[in-house]
Amino acid sequence: MIKAIVVDDERLVRKGFISLIDWPSFGVVIVGEAGDGNAALALLREQEADLLFVDITMPGMSGFELIRQVRQQFPAIRCVVLTCHHEFDYVQEALRLGAVDYIVKTLLEVENADATISRLVERVRWEDSTRESLSRREASGLAADRVLLFVPLKGQVSEEELFQLPLAKNQPLIALQGQWIVPLQGRMSGDALQRELRALPAGRWQAALVSGLQGRMCRELEPVLGKAARLALFYYGGEEEPPRLDYAELALAAEGAAGEAPFPASGHQLRWALERGDWDSFTAEMLLRRPAPEAVADFGHSLLKSWSPLLLSPAEAAELKAAISGNVNWCSWKQWLREFAGHVQRRMIELGLSKEVMFCLIRAVLYMKQNAGSKINQGDVAAHINMSRGYFSQCFARFAGESFGEVLRGMRLELAKSLLLETTHPVHEIACRSGFEDDRYFSRLFRERVGRLPSEYRAQGAKL
Question: For residue 30, which of 8, 9, 53, 5 has the smallest C-alpha distance?
Fold first, then answer.
């Protein structure tokens, strides 16, 4: 029998909740009740319990604090929230503290009470069986050769979402460093697996079938899957759904520098955006190096930040920015980069420039950004890209839509902004480091362009 205690500061509510349900029919016995958090903790020291129904809004110790105390002092006891608040914030906080479920008192009626308690009891029994299974597994290793691996795609996710899978109701769900696995007993077709996965919320999880695990301990799997599985899924090039991964290959990748390779320098030079051969070389180098997914996302954001005014229209930049959230693997990022390259090529045609001139202008912009703090001029940049100063001036004005001097001043102001926020150098030194010889001219220009003096910009930025 599951032993339960009800905690609510309103006596009539406690009695009503207890009398509403035929507890023995669910294998539950109510072994006590309490009117506040302190009384509940005192009762738990005397009375063994498996389940605690906790009201959130109680005088003195709140339900949230009681759950926190129970998790610390009695970790085997599961807590269920009783609340009149159906707001998401309340529910999220309760689940974050470790509550296994929540019941909205105002919505609990005779008609739905049985279904609510049945769901809860099923969850408790499932957890008990999982604990026993995990204890046996730690002693002998996994009995199954294959597992279904679940990797969160981004943001915060809850393992509660995985309980929607029919498979997870009959097999243990094992947490491993922010990933979860479900051992698969026997054969299961690809169609059957896909039917299982349709129950997951779209865009929040990526699943994979990992083989070669029989007899392996969970503590052995955790570092390997934690380091290598997400990267392997990001660059997975197979056609199977869900993707198939081999544990031995993952272990080899985990022993190396998986995800630690620097992003290819050729990516920032943008030749891949205009030449097919350079595109093939760049994408091949990406698959060879396999930089971390975060590095790929940073690269995408840097492309928009650096080139939106020059190579993309506002509408194109907005479209690409919105599409980034859907890039969950290298395949989707590669398509995104193709679209970026298409915009660059159309921009080149609109300007009436050749590929070689376009390459030279892109190199010029990169050189200007890298040396904005130095005392470079138009002649220096033209010499760097092997172009005459007069022809460079003409092409650059058409490319940028404004003069070389205006663009360089803008770059220097952006550098100054970064230095103001990221260093403690005095304003006159920042003016010099940003390529301005006269700090008074720098302060005046900064105020004209930014709307604040450098000191005011720094002070306001420090408060953000």
Answer: 5
